[in-house]
Amino acid sequence: xxxxxxxxxxxxxxxxxxxxxxxxxxxxxxxxxxxxxxxxxxxxxxxxxxxxxxxxxxxxxxxxxxxxxxxxxxxxxxxxxxxxxxxxxxxxxxxxxxxxxxxxxxxxxxxxxxxxxx
Length: 118
Prior knowledge:
By secondary structure, this protein is an alpha/beta fold. The chain has a single domain (7-53, 60-114), classed as 2,3-Dihydroxybiphenyl 1,2-Dioxygenase, domain 1, CATH 3.10.180.10. It is 18% helix and 40% strand. The protein is built from two helices and eight strands. The mean pLDDT is 85.
């Protein structure tokens, strides 16, 4: 039985660029960094940046990572857009919350999640 998320692995093409995106643009703290593996802390969840092996072609995505912003969804969209992040489509509203989708520096799918108010 799974008891929770231990680590989320994100495949990356360029470790330096990915560390800049996750550490500086998203504001996650870097726990360790290396050429083939780096790790960040996302409020107690470890995010591993895993260098793609030379035998793998470039991918159009990989693992899906959903992040919950500290402030409002729209404030974080503005902040990330100002940092050069391009969002895919509009914010989608659901009974269970709102989602805004974008890609990281390596082409992986990411989302911002805001739970329903009230």
